[in-house]
Amino acid sequence: MARQRLTHGEIEPLLDTWLETEFTFHAVAPVARTLSELTRDEQDFVLDWIKRIANTHITLAFHFAKRAPDLLHRLDRRAIEAWAVRLCDTYDRAGIYAALSVVEQADNYARTGQPHTEGALFDDIAGVLGNFVRGLSGRKLSIEQGDVVHTDGEKIVLPAMVSRFASRDDNFRLAKATVVLLWAQTRFGTLRADITAACAPYPHPERALQQFNALETLRLTSRIGRELPGVHRDIRRLMNVLGEDLPDAWQPLADRLAAPDAGAEDSLDLLDVAYRLPDFPAWCHQGTLRPDAVTAARAARLDKEKARLRIKLAQLLEEHARSQAPQPAVAPDRPDIEVTPRDDNGALDFEITLDGAPLAPPDDVRQLLTSVWLDFGEIPPEYLVPAGDGEYDLKAVFDQPEDPDAVWQGTYHEKGAELYPEWDHGRQHYRKNWCTMREKTVTPVYDDFVRDTLTKHGGLVRHLRRKFEALRDENRFEKRQTQGDEIDLDALVEALADARDGREMSDRLFVRLHRAERNIAVAFLVDMSGSTKGWINEAERESLLLLCEALELLGDRYAIYGFSGITRKRCELFRIKTFDDAYDDEVRARIAGIRPQEYTRMGFALRHMTRLLNAVEAKTRVLVTLSDGRPDDYFDVYRGEYGVEDTRMALLEAARTGIHPFCITLDREARDYLPHMYGAARFIIIDDVRQLPLKVTDIYRRLTT
Amino acid sequence: MTAQTLTPESHFIDREPYYEAVGDEIAIFEAAYRNCLPVLLKGPTGCGKTRFMEHMAWRLKRPLITVSCHDDLTASDLVGRYLVKGGETVWVDGPLTRAVRCGGICYLDEIVEARKDTMVVIHPLADDRRELPMEKLGQLLRAPEEFCLAISYNPGYQSVLKDLKQSTRQRFVALEFDYPAAELERRIVANESGVDAAMAEKLVKFAQMTRNLKGSGLEEGASTRLLVHAGKLIGSGVDPVVACRSAVAQAVTDDADMLAAIQELSSSLF
After folding, report:
1. B-chain residues near A487 (CB < 8 A)
2. Which of B80, B105, B99 is nearest to B90 (CA)?
3. Which chain B residues are closer than 8 Å to A130 by Cβ?
4. Following CA atoms A326, A330, A333, A335 in sequence, which dihedral angle do they give, to the nearest 10 degrees?
5. What is the ipTM of this complex?
6. B171 and B58 share one domain
7. Do B268 and A231 touch (CB under 8 A)?
8. Which tens digits make up the pLDDT trace of A47-86?
9. Which architecture, in CATH terms, is A460-465+518-704?
10. Are A482 and A510 in contact (CB under 8 A)?
11. Which CATH number is B80's domain given?
12. Which residues of chain B register pLDDT less than 70?
C-alpha cells in the first residue's frame, strides 16, 4: 500500500527546523505547499536532499527546495542528485556566490530542457570520452568540466550535463560528437590559424568569430565524415531529430569546404562572404571558439616543448652513438636530423632519419613531435637542433616535485599536492578534493635511541624473533605427490609391495619441491598528532623499532608512514620507510626522529595508504593503523561524529579494495564509538604499547596461515 | 574427422606459413642458425613472433618444438624425469632434450614466466659449449649442428620480477619485433582474414587508436593477431562493430570504462 503523502502542515515544521527559519526568515510556507502536492516518494526524495544540503549551507538548501519540484518534472532523479552534489561541491570550492550561480543553471534546464529528460552527466561520461579522445590521433587531450563548451588545444571543456535530448543515449551521442568536433579543431588546423587577427578588421569582430566558427564546423564536420564515418552518422541523425539543417545561403560555402584538401585557410578566405550572410544557426555539436584560451595554452606550451624536444633528441643521439661501434672517421659536428611527418589514413606518425639512416623515435619523442606538428603544421628546423650540454635548466623544463614546506612560504598553492575526498556524514556524500595532502620525510635523528632500545628490550627482541621465525616458511620437499621432479622411493617401495599384495597401487609416487613464497605487503600508519607527546610517542618509536627488527626476518615488504595535519589544507604524511627502502641506519634514525606534530585527521592518510598499498604487487595486503584516539582537527568539524564517520568510510574503502585493515588504538576512555568507527577493520585496544609487537605477530599468524 | 597425433620430432612444417618480413630478420636468423647462435625474439604479444618461428622452421626444414613457459615450469619439465611404468622407473626425455637429440628448433615462448632454475639449464646450451647437462642421468648431451635454441620475451611487462637476467640475455642474438607498419599490417590482415583492402585499412586504423591508449589505462594495444580475428569474424558476416568488440575490445581489457571507450572508437570508424 502506498504511504500517505505528507501534508503542508507536516512539511512546514520540518523545513522550519532544517532551514532555521527562526533566524534566517526563509519563506518556507509556499515551498511546503508545493511540496505537499508531490507524491510521497517524490517528497521523500526532495526532503532528504533538503536536509542533506542544509548541512552544508542553509541558503543553498532553500534554493534547492524552491526549484526541486519543477525540476522533478523535467529531469530524472539522477540528474537532480548530480545537480545537488554540484551545488555543495561548488560551495566547498568557491563559496556561496559561485554556488548560487549553479542554482541559476537549474533555471536554464527549466527553459531549454524538454520534460522528463535523462541527461548525460559529466561525471558519468568523462571517463569513457577521456579514453576515447586519447585513442584518436594527435595530442593527448583531456576532458574537463566547465561552463563554456570549447577547447584550448590541450583540454576539451564539456558542461556538467548534456540534456538536449530525451534519452540518455542520445545525449551521450551528442557529447561524443561535440568532443570529436573539438578534437578535430586541434587535429585539423583550426587552432593553428591566427583567428584573432583575421576577425579584427571587421566592424564586429565577435560576429566574425562566430561566422568563422560556423565555417570551421562545416569543414570539420565533413572531414569527420571521412575520418570517422560512425560519428558523422550520429551527427546527421541528431541534427535530424532537432530539425537542424544547412541554410541554403551557406550551401556553396559548405561545398567548397567539403573538399578533401580544404584547410583552415579556406575558411579564412571565405570569411568575407560568410560575414555578409545571415547568422549561422549553431549546430548541436558545435562549441564556442575561444582564441584567448588557445593563445594562452599555446604560449605556455611552445618554449617548454621546444626545450623538451631538443633535450630528448640530444639524449636519443647519445644513446644511438653509444650503441654504434666507435667510428674512426671524424663525426660531423652538426648531425643531420630530418623528420618526415606521415599523416596517413588518420594516423599521425613521424620518421626520424639521422644522416640518412632511420632512427626509431621513442613514444615520448613521438608525442612531442605530434604536439609541435599540430602547432606549426611542420617541424621547424630550430626544433631539431639537439640541445647542447647545460643549454637548458632541466629543472625548469621538466616538472619537478615540489618541496612540501615551500608551499607555506609566499602565496599558498596546491601545486604538487595530492587531493583526497572526504566523506561528509551530514551530506551523505563525499566532499570532492577536500584534503590537500603532501608527503614529507621524517628528519633522521642519530642519537642513542636505537642502541638504548635494543639493549633495554634485548629479551623481547629475542622472543619476537623466535615467534617470527616460526612463521617463516621455507623451501621443503613434499613427499607422496602425484606429480613431481623426482621419484619418492619410500612411496614407490610401499606401492610395489601393495601391488604384489594384490591391492591397488598408489599413484602418489613423487617428491615435489614446495617453494616458500611469502606474498604479503604491510603498511603501518602511525599517529604523529600532538596528543601522542610523552610516553605514547616514546612507546610508538620503541615498538616500531622492535617490529622492524622482527619483520626483517620474514622478508615481507613493509612500509611505515606517520600522519598528522592541521586543517584540510595541510594534511601531511611522513615517510619513515617506504616499500622500496631497505631497513638501514637511516630508517632507524627516522624512527628515532618521529616527533609529535599537530592533529589527528585520519581519512586522507588511510586513503593515501590504500593507494600506495594497492600499487604494491602482493597477494595479501595489510594496513595496520596505530593511533591514540578519536580523530580530531583544529577548529574544524572533524572533531566528533564527522571525523568518526570519515575514518569509518576510509576504512570501508580500503576493505573494499581487498586490503585487510587492522587498527590498534591506545584510547582507554572512549570505547563506545570504536566498534562503529572500525566497523570494517579488526581492532584491539591496548593499554601498554609494549604489547604492540606481540599483538602484530598474532595478526600476522591469523592473516597469513 | 580424426585429430592428428604428432611426436615433437616429426613436427615438420610442410606448407609455407604466411609471413611478411618487416626487415632483415629472416637473413639474421639464418645467419645465426648457420653459426650455431641462439636467438632471442623480443616484442609485444601477437606481433608475429610465433609465426616467424614457424616460418623459419619451414625454411630451415627442421622440426619445431615449442614450449610455452609458465610459472610452474621446472628444469625437469624441460630436460626429462624418471616415471614409474609397470613397477619400474623409466627415464623420459623432456621436450628440450628431444629437440637436442633430433636436431630440431626448440622455441621457449615467454621464457621469463618460467622458474629461475630453468634458465640455468639453458645457459650451457646457449653458449659455445652447446651442451645439455642431464644431472639425473649423469650424462651430458652435446647438441648437433642442426639444433637451434630460440626464446621469446615481452619487454612490455615492466616488472622487476619478470625481467630477463643479463647473464641470460647476453648469450643470444636478439631480434626485435614490433607491430608492422600500417601498410604492411593492412596487407597481413587482408591476407590472413580475407577481408577486402578497405576493411583491412579500417581495422588497422582502429588498432592504431587502441595503441594510442597504451599507457593511459591499457597495458597493450590491439595486436595484429586480434585484427586478424576480427577480420575473420567480419568475413563470416558479423557486423564490424560487434566483431571489434568481441575480438578486440574484450580481449585487451576488462575495465568497463575502457571497454566503453574502445567500443566508441570502433563505432566511430565503421
Report:
1. 82, 84, 89
2. B80
3. 261
4. -60
5. 0.76
6. yes
7. yes
8. 888 888 888 888 888 888 888 888 888 777 887 888 888 8
9. 3-Layer(aba) Sandwich (3.40)
10. yes
11. 3.40.50.300
12. 1, 156-162
